[in-house]
Amino acid sequence: MVPQRTDTWYVSYGLIAVNVVVFIVGVAMGDSLGGGGDEVGLVYRAATLGGNIEYLNEWWRVFTGGFLHHGVFHLGVNMFSLYILGLALERSLGKVSFTAVYLSSLVSGSFGALIEAPNSLVAGASGAIFGLMGAYVALSLSQGVGLFQTPIGPILAINLVISFTVRSVSLGGHIGGLIGGFIVGAAAAQAIRRRQHTTVIPVFAAAVVAGASFVGALWAASRSNVVLLLS
Predict the structure, then answer these.
(1) What's the pTM?
(2) Is residue 174 annotated as part of the catalytic site, yes or no?
(3) Per-residue model confidence as pLDDT tens digits over 105-128
(4) In sequence order, which ranges of 4-122 are alpha helices (DSSP H)?
(5) From CA 8, how far away is CA 95, in angstroms rounded?
């Protein structure tokens, strides 16, 4: 990995706090701790769903779905992963670039989820977390470090196997986030190697990835024929 900066993990902790607070609010609104019965709560109202994006113009679901979770176990697994990856990446990239990777990966993950399953109600930070894995891979490769010479290599391999074999997992969301994070991470790695515009370049790359993914998500949502109406 690149030499550590002096930045602390404020963004990582902040993102974990936001996800936890949103989950608590969701439970108060009717979401289930166990992940079932999300028909009246915040997941039902704000998770990513193509039909609501297309027919009710709820475009914001492309973003809000990445901060919602189907139960406390889902939340715990994702927040533990965010903690581990945050420790590995935020000091290396800096707060601004790390935030850019996370948010752009969240949007590219939503794009991937909508391509794969536009009629499914998708929630979870997994797309953004896979994006952090992608950025870690890009940084490692730029340093000439083999993927399986780092702890992330086996973790990524295991998660990809789970993504392809477990039906309830959003494969599209994981792959979309991974690709988006790798692109922005590669831009950050090049900026660090050249020691020029270390914030501007990855932020610009993140803006391009997020913008293209948002447009793509709107297109993918147009293929849906399922709409959730609030009573």
Answers:
(1) 0.90
(2) yes
(3) 999 999 999 999 999 999 999 999
(4) 10-29, 42-46, 50-55, 61-64, 72-93, 95-116
(5) 8
